[in-house]
Recover the amino acids of this structure.
């Protein structure tokens, strides 16, 4: 830990948004900045090698959260991987890069957040990230680009029905995260990076945030302000433990109330998803004798040329489509993983194949994050709105049809073609539904009594801002890493103007 105990600004979390906001503050010359990360460095080969993410999830570089029992899923708990290292979840994700749809932002209907406001920020972020199409996808992925007429394999977008190879924030088939694009270039501009220190709560003087307090008992003071960028789980949890949240809930946990903010922790949601497993020769990668040489050569190919199996981000492409086909507006995203994923138990099992899921682009179900006697309750309340389940049932039927139309080899191994009635599909989805690992919304910005203002300041408090996916009033229609980075980038701009 740094010996310095006071900075102008303290940024909590070195994830996709935190790295961007810290760089923005530094580049604006706003003084000294401490970036506090609970995990360790991202200097690990599995972080930089795209395929390495399969070994990172569930490791010590993953917070390893689990949800509360989900009522509509038969009481199942689901895994919630979140990155615990520099780069945050952007260091363990599949690096898929989508801005979302223009009307995602217009629907927020907030000053400063319409598409015309955020598009320039996306362009600035992408000038540093330079996301590009994966250059060596499995042939099965390329076939997705033949669907939907004029669309090309390199141009899938949630704006219209489309498919093909996705874009990724990689450079020369190496992960290129916000830590690479924003944080490291700004370290010589007044930023101090502190790793291995978990912030559990904030210190206040009246209604003004003055410090961050670590699980270890130490603290760092902030002369001009604190920015929470700990994510849709971490940021509200810190506020709740600090006495900012629903007063009745805080009192039940014997936490002194700094500010009664009923909506802190509410509005938790994610893209619900369930998928199909396919098997068959040439349908995808897997553990098979005919692929043994390719796997044996994979480390050398990557080391020498950044090519081969290890260069794959796993989710190599996918689709956007309307579940019923009665509208040209997509309400489903498919992540296509051209690797055999065993559904019978052991993680590593012989077989060749692929996995393709159905994720609801704009789910209606909402849950909440709360402090309880047992710790943190993370309840997505998945499929509590029947409309989400209806979209998934129709989406699986149309996905099957689209995969057949694309001419991709393989047969459905699980749940199998016999699982086709409404009742059977609903049961399958409820017993296998998870999320796309895109939690958002727990500090949704807005007007009135929303926890966070459209300028990303915490309403009712001073010298405190939030910059991460927790501020999204509603989720964007695709992967959320790019929007989170955009939010962090804009936070740097807002704060620089608002503290001047």
């Amino acid at each position: 830990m740094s010996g310095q105990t006071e900075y102008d600004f303290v940024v909590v979390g070195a994830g996709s948004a935190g790295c961007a906001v810290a760089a923005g503050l530094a580049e604006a010359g706003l003084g000294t900045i401490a970036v506090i990360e609970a995990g360790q460095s991202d200097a690990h080969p599995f972080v930089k090698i795209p395929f390495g993410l399969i070994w990172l999830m569930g490791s010590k570089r993953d917070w390893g959260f689990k949800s509360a029992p989900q009522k509509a899923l038969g009481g199942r708990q689901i895994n919630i991987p979140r990155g615990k290292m520099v780069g945050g979840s952007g260091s363990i994700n599949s690096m898929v890069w989508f801005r979302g749809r223009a009307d995602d932002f217009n629907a927020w209907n907030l000053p400063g957040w319409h598409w015309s406001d955020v598009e320039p920020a996306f362009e600035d972020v992408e000038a540093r990230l330079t996301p590009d199409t994966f250059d060596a996808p499995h042939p099965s992925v390329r076939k997705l680009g033949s669907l939907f007429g004029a669309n090309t394999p390199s141009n899938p977008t949630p704006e219209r029905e489309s498919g093909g190879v996705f874009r990724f924030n990689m450079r020369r088939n190496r992960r290129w995260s916000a830590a690479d694009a924003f944080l490291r270039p700004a370290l010589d501009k007044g930023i101090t990076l502190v790793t291995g220190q978990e912030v559990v709560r904030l210190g206040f003087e009246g209604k003004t945030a003055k410090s961050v307090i670590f699980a270890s008992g130490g603290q760092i003071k902030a002369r001009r302000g604190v920015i929470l960028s700990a994510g849709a789980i971490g940021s509200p949890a810190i506020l709740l433990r600090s006495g900012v949240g629903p007063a009745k809930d805080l009192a039940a946990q014997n936490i002194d109330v700094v500010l009664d903010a009923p909506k802190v922790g509410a509005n938790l949601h994610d893209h619900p998803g369930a998928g199909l497993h396919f098997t068959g020769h040439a349908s995808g990668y897997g553990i098979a004798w005919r692929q043994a040489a390719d796997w044996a050569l994979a480390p050398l190919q990557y080391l020498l040329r950044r090519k081969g199996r290890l260069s794959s981000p796993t989710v190599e492409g996918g689709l956007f489509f309307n579940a019923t086909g009665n509208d040209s507006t997509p309400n489903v995203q498919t992540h296509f993983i051209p690797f055999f994923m065993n559904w019978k138990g052991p993680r590593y099992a012989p077989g060749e194949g692929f996995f393709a899921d159905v994720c609801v682009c704009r789910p209606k179900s909402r849950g909440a994050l709360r402090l309880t006697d047992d710790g943190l309750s993370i309840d997505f309340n998945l499929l509590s709105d029947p409309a989400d389940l209806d979209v998934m049932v129709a989406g699986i039927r149309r996905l099957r049809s689209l995969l057949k139309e694309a001419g991709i080899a393989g047969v459905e191994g699980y749940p199998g073609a016999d699982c086709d009635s409404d009742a059977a599909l609903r049961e399958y989805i409820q017993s296998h539904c998870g999320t796309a690992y895109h939690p958002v919304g727990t500090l949704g910005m807005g007007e009135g009594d929303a926890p966070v203002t459209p300028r990303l300041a915490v309403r009712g408090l001073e010298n405190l801002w939030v910059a991460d996916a927790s501020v999204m009033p509603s989720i964007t229609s695709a992967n959320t890493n790019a929007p989170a980075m955009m939010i962090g980038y804009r936070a740097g701009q807002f704060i620089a103007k608002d503290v001047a």
